[in-house]
Amino acid sequence: MKNKLNKELAVCGFSAVKTLEKNNKSKIRRLYFTQEKAPLFGGLCKYLSKIKAPYNVVEPKELEKLCGSIHHQGVVAMIDEPVIERLNEDILNEMIAGNEHALLLDRVGNANNLGAIVRSAAFFGIKNIIIPMDEAQSSITTSSYRVAEGGMEFVNIYCVKSIPDVLNAVDGKMIRIGTDLSAKKTVSCLGELSRQKPLLIILGNEEHGISEQVKNLCDELIIIPFSGMQTGNASPVESLNVAQASSIILYEMLKK
User: Fold this and answer.
1) Spatial distance between the Cα atoms of 84 and 128, rounded to a whole number of angstroms
2) Which of 233, 100, 238 is nearest to 179 (CA)?
């Protein structure tokens, strides 16, 4: 939940706040917690006292108002509203030179899905996530921060005005991998591809997948195989949730 007046974002959830404390505590402007959680934030309170930042014990209902959710887990930290850096040529070249893989989200609109993707990316050591500047794309929110379970502190999220422009910019420098239900290749090919060049994995919108324009700019299209593929039987469900799919893709990508 954003406080537009103060340009703040509420970070809630025990793991999210604890990881924020450990890695980026200077981001925290204010801290609120229940009496039950107070003993777990003694060190952070000492730090906040030193820099003259407020912290208070409050009732759970007050935390719910601060973050707009019942899933606060007894603690809310207020940080400056994140400013997402624009992806530029220098950043792209640095990724490529460092052989760093990246995820590109094509209008993934659900904040919980974004958070889960961030969590998976952090778990597998993928630190670059690119999102479009599009109303259909979820950005960094209280929900995505909480679902990421601390993963937000380990990834760089960049924004772009045009996905096709990014795909054209990395042509021949990264292998552009799209996900598509009609693809012939499966995710098992990613391990080999990842040893050739850094991969740019494009994950699509929850309802429609990646756009046709984006598909046409991909070097490869892949599918996560299901049990009936070899026998020609249809899957009982059309596809996996995009966040679930991202975990499988990243696992296969890094499997040696």
Assistant:
1) 12
2) 238
Give the Cα separation of 202 and 188 in Å (integer).
16
Q: What is the pTM of this model?
A: 0.92
pLDDT in tens, 174-184: 999 999 888 99
Strands in 8-12's sheet, in edge-to-edge order, are: 2-3, 8-12, 75-80, 28-33, 55-57
Q: Please, are residues 167 and 206 in contact by the beta-carbon 8 Å criterion? A: no
Return d(Cα 130, Cα 163) in angstroms, integer.
Answer: 9
Tell me how many helices (H) and strands (E) the chain has.
10, 13
Q: Give the DSSP H/E element, type plus range, for residue 93.
A: helix 89-97
Percent of residues in the chain assigned helix, strand, coil, to nearest 5: 40, 25, 40
